[in-house]
Amino acid sequence: MILIVNGSPSGPKGNCQVLIQTLLKKMESYPDWRKKNALQVLQLSEIKWTQSNLKKIFSSLDTADGFIFVTGTYWDSWGSPLQIFLEQVTDREGTSTFLGKPVITLVLNHSVGGKGVLSRLQGVLSTLGCLIPPMSGLVYSWVSDQVLKNSVHGNAQKDLWSLDDIDNILENFRKALRLNVNWARWPVDQKDFRKIWLS
């Protein structure tokens, strides 16, 4: 199962959801991803972080073979629901929940700032233990969308991420999903990481 995580505050009503729908159409062209429950979408904006919900979310994370994170850009960062998610899963760093599982990272922005969000989010996901395949991230902007729809700017189009790049990203993701590696992990404080250390 591939877990698609929508980190946008707009959840199922925003641009990130439109991107997820485009992604799902592309993924459903692969036989493995056409199976029932092969693709699941987690709308972080709709989650109430209760103990019972945490158990359900951890169960989904534990059973996932790989992840796709989708977020917009908000004041040079990812969406607040995604930040809360990252804080909630801190104690899963280096565990089988994330260790060695491939991840795709897709970021939207209006004009600028998305590349910094992409790089930092990939860094966080790598630290949690996820595997970042080559060319597995994308930033798509409103500005790029306008240029790509305007045939006058043919040369500029070649140097911009486009939604067609998702095909290559998915191919690298599929190859990474086939890897079977016994990854090493560093020791992590999973019991007392929220302790008060400032006196």
Describe the protein's topology:
Layout: E1 2-6, H1 15-27, E2 39-43, H2 51-63, E3 66-71, H3 80-88, E4 103-109, H4 114-128, E5 137-141, H5 142-148, H6 154-157, H7 165-177
Parallel strand pairs: 1-2, 1-3, 3-4, 4-5
Brief sketch in words of this structure:
With 199 residues, the chain is of the alpha/beta class. The chain has helices at residues 15-27, 51-63, 80-88, 114-128, 142-148, 154-157, 165-177, and strands spanning 2-6, 39-43, 66-71, 103-109, 137-141.
Q: What can you tell me about this protein's structure?
A:
By secondary structure, this protein is of the alpha/beta class. The protein has a single domain, classed as 3-Layer(aba) Sandwich (Rossmann fold), CATH 3.40.50.360. The chain contains 7 helices and 5 strands, in the order βαβαβαβαβααα. It has helices at 15-27, 51-63, 80-88, 114-128, 142-148, 154-157, 165-177; strands at 2-6, 39-43, 66-71, 103-109, 137-141. A 5-stranded parallel sheet has the order 2-1-3-4-5, sandwiched between helices. The longest helix has 15 residues, at 114-128. The radius of gyration is 17 Å and the shape is globular. The protein starts with a strand and ends in a 22-residue tail after the last helix. The mean pLDDT is 92.
